[in-house]
């Protein structure tokens, strides 16, 4: 696996595309009325606690949070499954344990912030990347780098100060994760003096390129039984 | 027939050179010791006829062997241990991951042991259990794929899996364990919905979708005519059942629930039917392949009893309650 993701794959579930569409302006009217409420007890960082009192003033802010929520679901489930699959050891295992907790907290924070507008967790197929240490490391680098670029790309578009503060506090943690896993992999933790931002389209393409978003599984049918009876 | 060592095993010939020299010296110096009065060699020749392949994930190993003298006895050892009396076949269980070398030598009636023991070598690779304890995992089959006897592309094909069930739903397999081969390719051992029942096979990880974990297990006791559903080891549902008549027995073994049918119009099956991976050993030409279902009934007065063609029948109130408690992918044990 390389750091370069292909752009040809399809988001069969549509969750990321849906969130991206909202960021692009196709938001539901309900977002305006809902506001920005954070469930109590889910926040650990003081910066996020500060955001708990905020109210989303624009549909763009809510849509950006939804997009972030979808990405955080992806990261949180990736680390959670990697821990369940028992393939990690040493420094990589220690990294996964810490980052899994962080990503889980990010998901909780955004779920609480978005309330009924939160993105439902998509169905994932991590295609074996959680079941092999080498594949896990390569994929974690891609996901963390993508997360850093995604937050950086959307930050200038956030219109509410408290939401911007919360987003930046997540962004810096994602950057620490990216540096940490790069160090473990023997890659330069901070390869350049300036980090490029990624546009929504670029982030979407990167996420699609992983092909981690699985389509629906049909396990229930209304057809006549063919069993022996 | 494998002579001296299995051709597909990783047998080593270390020490063999020295032993061959020793045997040659023995034949030269004491020819009378190497041949009996009737011209039969005093030393029996030993051969291994069955051994594990060079790389296995199975912790059980079965080795069979024979000798050129039908009245010879055998002595075996594993990993340079002490030779002890043994009989063919020898079965080792619960082998830890690592290399193994098995040696066997025939001992003729004269008491002389074959100076060059037959040997077989193999390696038990470590696997990771995907379904263990009260948690099991299933995954959808993404496309047509063959299941193999071992996690090797050259291994014999055991079954061909399709992405859909006969009912048109996504085909599921219960994921049992994972193995990463030396090239980094991931293999998953899955429970197969094929005859013979209880078959398992290895498929590439790439042939399967994401895992879904379930904490439930349905246990069917045929003798007691009873089914019990457990969730994380605790009983959450229990009912008396109907099972197959003696001529169409409900098969025993380890299976899983792979489809749920709702809203169909046939009252014979009641309001809900689950399809399982179990198949009738007798009604193999049944439409759909003779899969065993778990379903309701329009004749509740027959239950409990041996009344079906192999399916597990429940009273409608029992199957409706089970429908709320048992997700697709639940392992099924039929005792």
Keywords summarizing the entry:
heterodimer; A: 229 residues; mainly alpha; B: 335 residues; mainly beta; SH3 type barrels; L,D-transpeptidase catalytic domain-like; 3 domains; six-stranded antiparallel beta sheet; disordered N terminus
Overview of this structure, please?
The complex is a heterodimer of chains A (229) and B (335). By secondary structure, chain A is an all-alpha fold. Chain A is built from 8 helices and 1 strand; from the N terminus they run ααααααααβ. Chain A has helices at 15-23, 29-34, 46-51, 59-85, 90-114, 133-154, 161-184, 200-210, and one strand at 220-221. The longest helix of chain A has 27 residues, at 59-85. The termini of chain A are far apart. With 335 residues, chain B is mostly beta strands. Chain B has 3 domains: 46-124, Immunoglobulin-like (Sandwich), CATH 2.60.40.10; 128-213, SH3 type barrels (Roll); 215-334, L,D-transpeptidase catalytic domain-like. Chain B has an 8-stranded mixed sheet with strand order 19-18-17-26-21-22-23-25, covered by helices on one side. In chain B, a hairpin with a 5-residue loop joins β4 (73-78) and β5. The model of chain B is unreliable at 1-19 and 21-36 (pLDDT under 50). The chains are: A mainly alpha (229), B mainly beta (335). At the A-B interface, α4 and β1 of A face β13, β21 and β23 of B.
Fraction in helix of chain A = 55-70%
Task: From the 3D structure, determine the CATH topology of the largest domain in chain B.
Answer: L,D-transpeptidase catalytic domain-like
Q: Do you know the CATH architecture of the largest domain in chain B?
A: Beta Barrel
Low-confidence stretches of chain B: 1-19, 21-36
Overall 3D shape of chain A: globular
Global mean pLDDT of chain A: 77
CATH superfamily of the largest domain in chain B: L,D-transpeptidase catalytic domain-like
SS elements, strand count of chain A: 1
Report the uncertain regions of chain A: 1-13, 24-56
Percent of residues in beta strands of chain A = under 5%
Mean pLDDT metric of chain B: 86
Give the N-to-C terminal Cα separation of chain B.
38 Å
What's the arrangement of strands in the largest beta sheet of chain B? 19-18-17-26-21-22-23-25
- The figure for the number of domains of chain B is 3
């Amino acid at each position: 696996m390389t750091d370069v993701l292909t752009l040809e794959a399809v988001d069969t579930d549509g969750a990321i595309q849906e969130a991206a569409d909202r960021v692009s302006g196709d938001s539901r009217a309900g977002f305006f009325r809902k506001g920005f409420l954070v469930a109590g007890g889910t926040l650990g960082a003081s910066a996020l606690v500060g955001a708990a009192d905020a109210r989303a003033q624009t549909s763009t802010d809510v849509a950006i949070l939804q997009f972030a929520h979808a990405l955080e679901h992806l990261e949180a489930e990736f680390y959670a499954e990697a821990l369940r699959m028992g393939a990690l050891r040493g420094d990589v295992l220690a990294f996964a344990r810490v980052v899994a907790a962080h990503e889980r907290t990010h998901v909780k924070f955004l779920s609480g912030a978005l309330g009924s507008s939160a993105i439902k967790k998509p169905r994932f197929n991590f295609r074996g990347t959680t079941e092999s240490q080498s594949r896990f490391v390569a994929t974690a680098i891609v996901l963390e780098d993508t997360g850093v670029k995604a937050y950086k790309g959307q930050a200038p578009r956030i219109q509410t100060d408290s939401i911007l503060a919360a987003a930046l506090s997540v962004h810096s943690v994602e950057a620490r994760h990216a540096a940490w896993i790069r160090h473990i992999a023997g890659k330069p933790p901070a390869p350049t003096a300036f980090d490029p931002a990624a546009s929504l389209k670029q982030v979407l393409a990167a996420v699609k390129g992983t092909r981690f978003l699985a389509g629906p599984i049909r396990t229930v049918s209304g057809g006549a039984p063919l069993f022996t009876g | 027939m494998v002579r001296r060592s299995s051709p597909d095993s990783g047998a080593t010939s270390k020490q063999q050179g020295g032993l061959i020299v020793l045997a040659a010296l023995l034949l030269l110096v004491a020819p009378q010791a190497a041949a009996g009065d009737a011209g039969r060699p005093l030393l029996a020749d030993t051969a291994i006829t069955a051994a594990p392949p060079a790389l296995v994930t199975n912790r059980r190993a079965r080795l069979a062997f024979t000798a050129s003298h039908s009245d010879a006895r055998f002595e075996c050892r594993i990993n340079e241990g002490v030779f002890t009396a043994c009989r063919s076949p020898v079965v080792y269980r619960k082998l830890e991951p690592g290399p193994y070398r098995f040696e066997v030598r025939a001992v003729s009636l004269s008491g002389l042991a074959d100076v060059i023991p037959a040997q077989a070598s193999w390696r038990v690779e470590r696997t990771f259990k995907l379904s263990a304890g009260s948690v099991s995992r299933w995954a959808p089959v993404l496309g047509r794929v063959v299941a193999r006897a071992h996690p090797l592309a050259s291994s014999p094909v055991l079954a061909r899996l399709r992405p859909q069930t006969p009912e048109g739903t996504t085909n599921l397999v219960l994921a049992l364990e994972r193995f990463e081969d030396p090239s980094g390719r991931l293999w998953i051992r899955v429970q197969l919905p094929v005859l013979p029942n209880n078959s398992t096979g290895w498929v590439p990880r790439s042939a399967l979708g994401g895992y879904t974990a379930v904490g439930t297990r349905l246990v069917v006791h045929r003798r007691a005519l009873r089914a019990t559903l457990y969730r994380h080891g605790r009983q959450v549902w229990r009912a008396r059942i109907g099972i197959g008549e003696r001529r169409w027995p409900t098969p025993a073994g380890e299976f899983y629930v792979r489809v749920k049918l709702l809203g169909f119009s046939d009252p014979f099956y009641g309001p809900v039917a689950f399809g399982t991976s179990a198949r009738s050993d007798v009604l193999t030409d049944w439409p759909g392949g003779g899969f065993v279902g778990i379903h309701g009934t329009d004749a509740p007065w027959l239950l409990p009893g041996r009344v079906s063609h192999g399916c597990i029948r429940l009273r409608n109130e029992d199957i409706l309650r089970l429908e709320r408690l048992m997700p697709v992918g639940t392992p099924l044990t039929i005792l």
